[in-house]
């Protein structure tokens, strides 16, 4: 094939979001940095919040939700902290997110609420749960080998169903555990999802 007829292929792209909370998520940043060190052909865009971005990634600070959804929609992998926003935004972008729950013992969150949430989302087929660096490496390597694995049409649950399941889980959990998620934040997430879905 001549240079003039060669097909341009975009790089394999990971979009990672560490959340906007003041707690840092350095553990996930280190895991991702070590994986990226062996994959210089991978493009990685990171909404890092208060966490220092991994070497080898393109930091974008904190972007608007519409910008984040556009980035997720163009990604082969959506990787993020294990919060409801990550799962719901990935579903809007027709992606199965790879989620890593924040842990209180590393001062990544006030408690371990993301562990239960992520495990439930994984068991419901709404997310791929990663709890160790080895699992993250294996998951990213599998996606790199099959780039369509986590993209739309690859068994990603419908957004309406995902919203309903997340709403039920958050309602159940909020009744049991003070501080799981603020009522205002929960309202903001669902309002923005409704607005986005109406368009």
UniProtKB/TrEMBL annotation:
**SUPFAM superfamilies registered for this protein in UniProt:** UDP-Glycosyltransferase/glycogen phosphorylase
Please state every residue range assigned to the domain named Glycosyl transferase family 28 C-terminal: 67-147
> Which InterPro entries does the record match to this protein?
Glyco_trans_28_C
Recorded protein name is Glycosyl transferase family 28 C-terminal domain-containing protein
Q: What is the lineage of its organism?
A: Bacteria, Bacillati, Actinomycetota, Actinomycetes, Propionibacteriales
């Amino acid at each position: 094939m001549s240079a003039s007829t060669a097909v341009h292929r975009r790089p394999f792209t990971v979009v990672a979001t560490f959340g906007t909370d003041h707690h840092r998520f350095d553990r996930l940043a280190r895991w991702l940095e070590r994986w990226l060190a062996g994959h210089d052909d991978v493009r990685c865009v990171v909404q890092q919040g208060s966490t220092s971005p991994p070497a080898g990634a393109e930091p974008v600070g904190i972007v608007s939700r519409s910008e984040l959804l556009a980035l997720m929609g163009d990604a082969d992998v959506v990787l993020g902290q294990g919060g409801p926003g990550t799962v719901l935004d990935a579903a809007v972008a027709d992606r199965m997110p790879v989620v890593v729950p924040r842990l209180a013992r590393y001062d990544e969150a006030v408690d371990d609420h993301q562990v239960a949430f992520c495990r439930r989302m994984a068991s419901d087929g709404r997310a791929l749960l990663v709890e160790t660096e080895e699992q993250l490496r294996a998951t990213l390597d599998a996606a790199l080998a099959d780039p369509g694995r986590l993209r739309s049409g690859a068994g990603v649950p419908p957004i309406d169903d995902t919203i309903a399941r997340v709403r039920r889980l958050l309602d159940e959990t909020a009744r049991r555990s003070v501080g799981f998620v603020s009522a205002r934040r929960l309202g903001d997430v669902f309002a923005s999802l409704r607005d986005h879905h109406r368009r």
